Structure formats: structure tokens, C-alpha cells
Amino acid sequence: MKDLKVVYALIQNENGEVLLVHNTDDDGWSLPGGKVEYGETLVEALEREVMEETGLTAKVGDIVSINEGKSTRMNVHTLFIMFKVTVDEYKTEIHMKDEIAELRWLTVEEADEKLVYYHHSLKEFLSNKATYYNEGYVD
User: Fold this and answer.
1) How far apart are the C-alpha atoms of 53 and 45, rounded to whole Å?
2) Whole-angstrom distance, CA of residue 92 vs CA of residue 37
3) SS3 label, residue 109
4) Which residues of 97-115 are buried (b: 16+ CB within 10 A; e: fewer)?
5) Is 138 contained in some domain?
6) What is the mean pLDDT of the chain?
7) 3-state SS, residue 131
8) Is 135 a member of any domain?
9) How many C-beta neighbours within 10 Å does residue 64 have?
10) Strand (E) positions, the chain?
11) Which spans in the chain are helix H?
């Protein structure tokens, strides 16, 4: 079974709204993020994905959720890691128009309705905290 890591950004604006992206491949909504590429750290991948999908420069903070799932059909074991992310500016721009159809700032309640794969409210994730530390290369 192949291992896959996927990172997501929980970004909240000054009004308390969270940013969601509407994906073209499955016609669904998600937090900005995506697959960690070979050689990337989790933070590098998330910074890249947020820029590609939203045009925002991400300041990656603490981990707020780790989920996992297995797919026998795809023969993959996936770790989904959600980070709290801050940005200096809230003006968004889709750079990956073939992957992202729309960006939308929504209230937490509205976002919860669109994010059907989470069993908890984003409110819960906004208050979670687990420190992330990259230990770099160890010989």
C-alpha cells in the first residue's frame, strides 16, 4: 500500500470567516491544500499549495488535526494534516484555474455544511494545537 501525505490550511480572516476552495476534479469544497511532493517538508508543501490555489502567502502555524484513511481500491494509505495558517493579506487569486473553480470566505457554520468529510466543526479545530517541529536532516 502506497503512503500519501496531504496538507490543508485552516485560514481565518479578520471577520472570523474561513477560506474554502471549490475543486474542479470532484466538484466539492475543501480547505486549501494538497499532496506533499517528494522531497518537500509539510510546511513547504502547504506554502506551495496555498500560493497555487489562492495566491496567498501562508505563514504556517500549529497542527490542528491529523486524520488518516485507507483506500483498497486505490491501494493508498493517506495522512491528512491540517495546519492553522495566517496571512498578511486577504486578497485571493486562483493560480491553478484547472484545479480550482472558486474561492470563498465563509462563516464557520457555512464552511461546516460544505466540508462533509469532517465529523467535527471547524470551531473545534480552530482551538486545537499541536506544535509542529521540522527536525531537518538527521544522519
Assistant:
1) 12
2) 24
3) helix
4) eeebeebebbebeebbeeb
5) no
6) 93
7) coil
8) no
9) 20
10) 2-11, 18-23, 29-30, 33-35, 59-71, 76-86, 100-106
11) 42-54, 108-114, 122-127
Distance CA 18, CA 1 (A): 34
Query: Tens digit of pLDDT for each residue in 65-76?
Result: 999 999 999 999
Considering the domain boundaries, does residue 134 fall inside one?
no
What's the rounded mean pLDDT across residues 101-112?
A: 96
- Domain-embedded: residue 132: no
Cell numbers standing for residue 110 = 457555512
Number of compact structural domains in the chain? 1
Can you give 37-48 as a three-state secondary structure string? CCCCCHHHHHHH
Instruction: State the average pLDDT over residues 26-41.
Output: 94
Residue 42 has pLDDT above 90, yes or no: yes
Q: Which pLDDT score, from 0 to 100, does residue 33 have?
A: 97
Q: Are 19 and 103 in contact (CB under 8 A)?
A: yes
Which structural domain range is residue 70 located in? 2-127
CATH code for position 120: 3.90.79.10
Q: Which three cell numbers stand for residue 121?
A: 466543526
Q: What is the pLDDT of residue 100?
A: 94
pLDDT of residue 48: 97
Mean pLDDT over residues 98-124, rounded? 92
Take residue 105 and report the three cell numbers written for it: 470566505
